[in-house]
Amino acid sequence: MSIPLKHFKKGSRKPELPEDGVLRFYSMRFCPYSERAALVLAAKKIPHHKVYIDLSEKPDWYTDYSPLGKVPAIQLTAVTGQPALVESLVIAEYLDEQYPERKLFPTDPLQKALDKILIERLSPAVSAVYPVFFTTNPPEDALPKFEKALDIFEEEISKRGTPYFGGQQIGMVDYMLWPWFERFPALKHVLAEKYELDKQRFANLLKWRDLVAQDEAVRQTALDSGVHAKFMLTRQEGKPNYDVAFEPLSNL
Amino acid sequence: MSIPLKHFKKGSRKPELPEDGVLRFYSMRFCPYSERAALVLAAKKIPHHKVYIDLSEKPDWYTDYSPLGKVPAIQLTAVTGQPALVESLVIAEYLDEQYPERKLFPTDPLQKALDKILIERLSPAVSAVYPVFFTTNPPEDALPKFEKALDIFEEEISKRGTPYFGGQQIGMVDYMLWPWFERFPALKHVLAEKYELDKQRFANLLKWRDLVAQDEAVRQTALDSGVHAKFMLTRQEGKPNYDVAFEPLSNL
Question: Which of A155, B49, B174, B211 is the most buried (most CB within 10 A)?
Answer without folding.
Answer: B174
